[in-house]
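Predict structure. Chain length: 83.
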Amino acid sequence: MFFSALFCTKILTRIKKILIINQRSNGDVYLLQSLISILKENYANAEIEILVNDDTHQIAKLLQGPKNIITFSYEEKHKLGFK
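Prediction complete.
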């Protein structure tokens, strides 16, 4: 058991990038701030990126901590023929 915990701790300290995917509303994106803060505390060297709906991009820009904000569009997805 101790070996497993030690192994997991060593693996987790090597995390360099974290992607948070949020496909919901402005409120859900706003609530990401607490998650980003906790991740920054535990993985200070990790680069955090978030993926959000283009409708929520303006709220995502207010968040502190993510290095990049990536957007997607449901409208574009439907234009390409995806359901």
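Summary: The CA atoms of residues 54 and 71 lie 5 Å apart.
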